[in-house]
């Protein structure tokens, strides 16, 4: 019984436990297998980068204020954050890496930058 490549179905020569005839077939097979998860990761990272750039642009002084409309007009997505910080008083800050925001009243947001400790 001859073994066949999982990608191209060619006959495999060499070790008995080989699954692919070449590195090319192995790479193509695994790239197709992981395509959906890689797209999800790539799209999520792109959203996080965009959110980070927007916060960084609106917060050059490491502490400022902005409105929800300003953030949304620049393309900010409130669904993508990297962490949440809750103060002792229970105030919740949302962060995209070291750039964060705190929801205030009347659709205002306090923008902050986390300083290295």
TrEMBL record:
Superkingdom as given in the UniProt entry: Bacteria
Protein name, entry field: DUF2116 family Zn-ribbon domain-containing protein
Organism expressing this protein natively: Mesonia aestuariivivens
């Amino acid at each position: 019984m001859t073994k066949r490549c999982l990608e191209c179905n060619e006959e495999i020569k060499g070790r008995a436990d080989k699954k692919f005839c070449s590195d090319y077939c192995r790479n193509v097979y695994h790239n197709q297998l992981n395509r959906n998860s890689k797209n999800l990761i790539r799209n999520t990272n792109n959203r996080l980068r965009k959110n980070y750039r927007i916060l960084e642009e609106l917060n050059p002084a490491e502490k400022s204020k902005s409105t929800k409309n300003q953030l949304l007009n620049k393309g900010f997505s409130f669904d993508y954050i990297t962490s949440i910080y809750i103060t002792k008083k229970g105030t919740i800050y949302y962060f995209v890496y070291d750039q964060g925001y705190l929801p205030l009243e009347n659709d205002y947001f306090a923008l902050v930058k986390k300083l290295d400790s």
